[in-house]
Amino acid sequence: MPTTIRIRDETRDRLQALSAREQRPVSAIVQDAVLRYDDARFWADFRREVASEAADHPTAWALHRADTAAWDDTLTDALTDGPGRLDLPNGPDPRHDDAEDR
Q1: What is the DSSP letter of 91?
Q2: Number of CB atoms found within 10 A of residue 96's CB
């Protein structure tokens, strides 16, 4: 069911320009934007919680990192970037080859 929302004229103009450039309906662009925003917020919250737990329990965090290190060689999915990538406290996730490049 269609819904009307109030947005600034500038935002409407940008949506219409995106719609024309991508040849997609404005509603699809808004839907994609909301999904991306929601995903970004989820991962930002997740990273913040992980960092908080690591700071609150440094010994347990060190034990966890040591325990999971044994599994590093089993990861063959070659993830290098994206929302599932974790830059954990104490530096980037060492399971990724480009961690040394940072």
Answers
A1: S
A2: 19
The whole-angstrom separation of Cα 32 and Cα 40 is 12
- Find the farthest-apart pair of alpha carbons in the chain and give their distance in angstroms, rounded: 54
Find all residues with CB under 8 Å of 55, minimum gap 6, and list them.
89
Backbone angles phi, psi at 77, to 5 degrees: -85, -10
Q: Which residues, including other chains, have CB under 8 Å from residue 94's CB and lie 6 or more apart?
A: 69, 72
What global pTM score does this model have?
Answer: 0.59
Query: Cα(93)–Cα(65) distance, rounded to whole angstroms?
Result: 10
Structure confidence by residue, pLDDT tens digits, 1-34:
788 999 999 999 999 999 999 999 999 999 999 9
**Measured distance CA(2)–CA(15) in Å, rounded:** 17
What is d(CA 53, CA 101) in angstroms, rounded to the nearest whole number? 26
